[in-house]
Amino acid sequence: MLGLAPAVLLTAFLLLIPLGLMLHESVQTYTPGRIGSDEAGPLTLENFREILTVSYLSYFTDTFLLSMIAAIVAVIVCFPLAYRIARLSGRRARAMWIFFLMSLLFVSALAKVYAISVSFGPVGILPYVTRAIGISQNSLLAIQGVVIIGLLHYLMPIVTLSLIGAVQGVNPRLLDASQSLGASQLETHLLITLPLCGRALLSTFLFATTLSISAFVIPLILGRGRVAFLSNLIYTRFGEISNYPSGAAFAIVLLSLVAAALACTTFLTRSRRRKAAA
Amino acid sequence: MSTVEFSNVCKSFGSTKAVDDASFFFAAGSLVSLLGPSGCGKTSTLRLIAGFERVDKGKVLIDGADVGALMPFQRNVGVVFQDYALFPHMSVAQNIEYGLRRRHGRLDHSARVREMLQLVQLEGFQERLPSQLSGGQQQRVALARALAPRPEVILLDEPLSALDLQLRQGLRIELKRILAALGITAIVVTHDQEEALGLGDVVVVMNKGRIEQIGNPADIYNRPKTRFVAGFVGRSSWLSGRALPAPGGLTAVCLEGGETFITHAVGLASGAQVDICLRPERFRVVEPGMETEEKPQLVLSGRLVETAFLGPEQHLAIVLGSGKVVHVSARVTARSHSLPVGGPIRVGIPPDEIIIIPS
Amino acid sequence: MRRAIDKAGAVLERVTVALVCLFLVAPIIALIFMSLDSRAYLAPFPPPSLSLRWYAKLLHTDLLLKAAGNTALIAATATATALLIGVPAGLALSGGHWRGRNLLTGFLMSPLAIPGVVLGFCMLLFWAKLQFSTGFLRLYCAHTVLTLPFILRAVMGGTDGLNRNLASAAESLGATPTRSLVDITLPLIRANIVAGVVFAIAFSIDEIAVSLFLTDPNITTLPVAMVSLMRSSFDLSVAAAAVALMVTTVLALLVLHLIFGMDRILGRGQYG
Prior knowledge:
- The structure holds three protein chains of three kinds.
- The mean pLDDT of chain A is 85.
- By secondary structure, chain A is an all-alpha fold.
- Chain A is built from twelve helices and no strands.
- By secondary structure, chain B is an alpha+beta fold.
- Chain B contains eight helices and 20 strands.
- A six-stranded mixed sheet of chain B has the order 6-7-8-3-9-10, sandwiched between helices. Chain B has a five-stranded antiparallel sheet with strand order 13-12-11-14-20.
- In chain B, a hairpin with a 2-residue loop joins β4 and β5.
- Chain B is elongated and about 75 Å long.
- Chain B starts with a strand and ends with a strand.
- The two termini of chain C are 33 Å apart.
- Chains A and C meet through α1, α3, α4, α5 and α7 of A and α1, α3, α4, α5 and α6 of C.
């Protein structure tokens, strides 16, 4: 018990107090030209009201739409890979795959973003693709596409790793049983594996969405200033116009959204475990 | 070698009473089996002696001294765990040496380690890791490790349950040999009645946290004091009856089907309801024309509903007139083998081998 | 008919797996080629010829070199601190079930779940209120809180898979609880702790969203410096720096993998 004290104290001091300060900051009055809030000013909900105005809508749509698209695609395309790895019999082959995915997961996110930028961006294949479709490589659609690709590259290793866990939870005997009862491989897959992994797929999707709505570097670099997430907006509030109260209000909104998504994920994983235990 | 004593020990986990007012005294050097179904409190009893749990009430005494306040490492009690709990990163020799170093300092313990390896017949295995041993070998290492520091008492939690049947019987004999040779006080927890009766000089039967009976194996089997003990140890059929006074200070028991027998059992109040426990192997099939046996017996007649041939013996299920079923294992003879299913049958049992338990 | 569908399904599966792998690896290979570009500016892929000019330039870019030094120092000190306070905390959290245990675990793990920008922003407000701090102190504190969850998770994951009777066995053989921790528990979860440290360092040397708020003109970290270069110039020494960062991480992971086996650290699941 005593061992917990330093960790709890440190986290409380460096996390809880700052979060409290941020909450306080978000209801302060902003005076243009000042760095930080006006301590003497009245408390206000103006910063939150401002968030609801139409001018910020694009940040929300960009953040959520692109994140969800990336998360859905990641779950769909990673499932076959996860399935294949989970069912590998050779220890060595499996270890190689896990190492490969872990390396991709932990390899510098910045390096990966830059890799996407040079391979899929204006100096990469983007001009060829946009020419083929007949849109400008500087159009919003093209930039959004590149951001989604960046998110996908970021999400796929972790989504695959988490799906491997889900597939491992399905008893392979069930699949043998299904095929011995006359079902084809495809039917077995659709009728047994997918339903048994259903909750895991959903919770992985939610988890991936949460990860990408918190993304910062990916839209910062790949968005080229045209596509920006909430996190980029918060940074701009701080870095470029020093409107701390507004930044704090946006941060609280982002934090609440992420917390809600995580709560759903936790709920799904918990009930899955309870079901497995029953 | 020490005595182990519980005096009115209680231990609860939340709302469940794991050990409920248990008292016992085991003499130094005794080999005790702690028997009961899972959840009866036998493992909790073990953990209380080892010091992994603290008593809520009552006293635990080892060699007459109250050890209630002592931590496990301050008690000199060896433990063999059900899953052996061998240290996977240490060799066999290092495992055995661990307790010696902790209890007696960093001296040269190689002689004692060799001695222990010899005792459990694992010479030449000292450099192996636990993962390179078979289940039976791991079990022996666990025993050697627990015995090495010369504990006052050794506790064994289901020591043979993780092994397969054939190995289990061989190791049971070996375990008994080793423990008897050392003369150490040993307490073995088991849910297997055969193991309990075969291993222990003293058998303690527990149920729902309470001690049902303490006695030697023959007592537990032949003279169970409660319905639970009679039912848990050995196979049995149950009838009910009423005790009546009989001439000569004896007691007569009248069964529900009207049969009566005279017993030497004492302490049965006249008119009291009693449960009758009948061991299947104590029956004999009464063949026609052989009614007049040398000894008086209780004869039950009924209809044979099922037979199963088990090699040296034969299992018979008999429905009595009252509708109760009695199970009999009879020696296979030329005649019994041809008993017709569905036909009438008579079986007899000597009154002294009938277990009577006041209900 | 069924067999034809199964066959088509199998082919589709193979194609998907191959495309996923290609998508994951190709950009990184492209980046490595671009970092070896002999042209003096960022120009379309592929480079006509290869050279080490950007790596040479990297070694002469003081900003990036100093930033790399800071990053290494911060990662080392923060991870060491997290290790020091995280191992006891993880052991305490894995000792049985008590009220509030899950809540406390969630609290200590939360820095990983909170968006980096939010974390950075509120820490900035905190240090501004304190009105005394240095850039290094701010970054060191932030990285300690951020790497702590990796250590905690490693310790808890390790003890989770550990037979509880092992510690009991040691105690019944005369070891004090501390002794049993040193002799039994810690050696058996060593692989997990080392993995936790490697993951923590990998995370720390790449962290950007939080650090961006806490740097000042005197101190910056490598990722922060790289982002500003990426946005301001078309200089490929950033690519060289990114490759260097990547190689460092992969090497650390490779050593870890060769010693302990990554799949063993992650576990196989009950039907593995």
